[in-house]
Amino acid sequence: MKEEVIEKEIESKIEKNLENCCKNGHKNHHYGHGGGDGVYCLGVIGAAIFFIGQATTFWMGALGLLKAFIWPVFFVYESLKFLIG
Fold it and tell me: What distance in Å separates the CA atoms of residue 64 and residue 45, rounded to the nearest whole number?
């Protein structure tokens, strides 16, 4: 009995949220925010292949995988160092 009441409350809240979703001119609110995520993902994959390919030991490969996720930090640092001096 208690579970049925909770289930009905959840369903009614979901229905209200769906009804309110498209009110007040927010009809086209659900869309992508650009292609940056895909570019970053391809960069991570490419960097992982590069860094792991350069590794000579398992731990260097693990470090390479970590570097693959933070490669933008290196890129920005080196770019600013080159531009500013």
Answer: 11
Whole-angstrom CA distances from 61 to 40, 43, 54, 68, 80 are 20, 17, 8, 10, 27
Scan for tokens 């531009």, then name that residue.
83
> In this structure, how many other beta carbons lie within 10 angstroms of the beta carbon of residue 85?
5
Burial of 63 (0-12, 13-18, 19+ CB in 10 A): middle
Comparing 40 with 7, which gets the higher pLDDT? 40
Region class of 19: left (phi > 0), else alpha (psi between -120 and 50), else beta: alpha
- Which is higher by pLDDT, 73 or 23? 73
Q: How far is CA 60 from CA 41, 50, 67, 68, 83, in A?
A: 21, 12, 10, 12, 30
pTM attached to this predicted model: 0.51
The domain limits of the chain are 2-84
Q: Name the strand (E) or helix (H) holding 26.
A: none
